[in-house]
Amino acid sequence: MNFQSELQEKTKEAEEIICRYLPKEEGFAAHLAEAMNYSVCSGGKRLRPILLGETFRLFSGSGHVAEPFMAAIEMIHTHSLVHDDLPALDNDDYRRGRLTTHKVYGEAMGVLSGVALLNYAYETMLKAFALTERPQAVIRAMEIMTHNTGLYGMLGGQSVDVENDGNPVSREILDYIYENKTSALIQASMLTGAVLAGADERELAVIDQAAKNIGLAFQIRDDILDVTSSQEELGKPVHSDEKNNKTTYVTLMGISKASERVADLSGEAVALLDSLGRKNEFLDTLVRELVGRRK
């Protein structure tokens, strides 16, 4: 398997699915739709839709029922980025190598487009009912998505991050932030793929832990890149954690030990996936590649 070539193909596939579900830029709210589409179409790794689709394949899922969820998870993720970049939060000017949504469309439209993306994600998920004869699986998948996005997931983690902005935090609080702000959406992606493909409760528990490890590894690697990468390479400002006096795994344990933690987490995630007795070579390689990514 040529991983990079296959990754490009999977990314292209995810892009096509996402674009298929984007709102049309028409009517009196066309400017809002344009701002929504600007942020979603600004590139990115499409990691969450790819993980969802590959977990669906891991459990021999067939048909198109996963596609609305692939588009929706990217909308949810993008909504969080649009709001992260706002002046009230991180106040960043660049994301994925170009101006952030609020810098192009203004702060008010940045707020509105983020909220609209979150709402439109749920509208998009509902379209899965027409693509399956197993409506209960769609309901379960939506329960996972909504739970992991809200108070007990991404937004809960974001709130604790904001409340502690600029203040030193303990490892316990940092783990809470990472497990919710970042891991929760990766868990939602992989659990949704598994549920839609018919995985049983034991298999879902394994996927949940593997995805939690992947999310933590991904965020810690982000901490490392903020220190070691460049703005050209990363597509967004570097050293922002230091500028904002943020506690990260790098500030707590240094680059070397943080890198070891990433390797341990990703290794455990692959071992968990292997324990299922199923094989998706691309998914295993993707998890391992997160350790050494440069952007």
TrEMBL record:
Entries under PANTHER family matching the protein: FARNESYL DIPHOSPHATE SYNTHASE (PTHR43281)
InterPro entries hit by this protein: Isoprenoid_synthase_dom_sf, Polyprenyl_synt, Polyprenyl_synt_CS, Prenyl_diphosphate_synthase
Record PROSITE patterns: POLYPRENYL_SYNTHASE_1 (PS00723), POLYPRENYL_SYNTHASE_2 (PS00444)
Name of the protein this chain belongs to: Polyprenyl synthetase family protein
Protein keywords: Isoprene biosynthesis, Magnesium, Metal-binding, Transferase
Co-factor requirement: Mg(2+)
Family: Belongs to the FPP/GGPP synthase family.
